[in-house]
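Can anyone check this?
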Amino acid sequence: MIEMEPTTLTNIFTLDFGIRTLINLTAITILVRFLYYPTYKNSDFVFSYFLFNFIVFILTIFLHNVEVSMGLTFGLFAIFSMLRYRTESISIKEMTYLFVSIAIAMLCAIIKTTPLGLSLIISGILALTWFIDSNFFLKKEIRRTILYEKIDLIKPENQEVLLRDLQKRTGLNIHRFYVQKIDFLRDTAVLKVFFYEQPGQQNGVEIEEEQAVNLSSEN
């Protein structure tokens, strides 16, 4: 059983706590508002990232100050980092941003260094996140799911013709695709197409199969 001394809370709310809180809030704001949101435009995850970050930060601060085993702290980290929402699937990148937001909270809460040292460490994490998720490191490949009606073109010998048809009808510079599903009863196929993000173009989010773009309605 954990016993807290009467002065424990007083010892927690110190100048060091205030500085760590400020660094953490600044870091998560930069991560979510300036790195994640401009690219992915999902306000629901903005709320989740902020809340996860702050809750983990506060929990870690309190547990660390009452001398709870660090195993419990890292156990919380593992639980939060492996969460899955049942109402909506989470992409690998969004899970990675969640992982980074939790890691920032833990670093700000427990790492023993000066405010300048902590700021440099967090800045390095943010800079690396921005670089890896930018076009400077790797071109962003966007995916779309398309319901395609010219089923005769899905044959291997017609792939070049199919690719040109997709480029013409979508207006996108599609460079590759694969057939996800074929429905011979309806003479349609579900295609997964890939193209690189262009400057000024909003990054796409994968569309679920039931929401696939239907090209069969075009003349």
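Reply from J.R.: I decoded it. The longest helix spans residues 15-40.
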